[in-house]
Amino acid sequence: MNVAPYDHVRVTGDESGVGDDTLAPATYRVVGIGDEHVTLLEVADTTGQRVHTGRVERVSHAVFDAAKAVDGPDSGGPLARVRSVVEGFALTLRYAPRRIAGRPIQTLLGVVLVVAEALGPATVGVSESVLTVAGVFGVLALTAAALDMP
Questions:
Q1: Residue extents of the structural domains in the chain
Q2: Does pTM top 0.85 for this prediction?
Q3: What is the DSSP letter of 46?
Q4: pLDDT tens digits for 13-50?
């Protein structure tokens, strides 16, 4: 098996070690590669749940090759990434009204700029490019207020 940093392997206990060079059942991340040994950090238990033991093991390439290559415990595939983005967006929507209410001047300025752009140059009396810039700044002001940024 080719070995590279950040590769993950799972040891189930069925693998046979070479001499005293064995691994306890767990999921490990490659953190070092030598000519004769591979250094591994335990990152998950036998069920695949993340653990923070700090346990580091140094094993021969033969023992490493006997382990099964797996995805890391934090990589739940493409759906995990989508779920993370949706959860973050939901939290933003949950807290945004409270944050916006805490910044009334910034919010009012943002709303005025966005409304001015929406009304157009005929109503407001300035060029379209000025209104476009105003609209962008209005959206930025509202976004900053919602995200609790200055």
A1: 8-70, 97-146
A2: no
A3: T
A4: 765 555 456 788 999 999 999 999 999 999 998 888 88
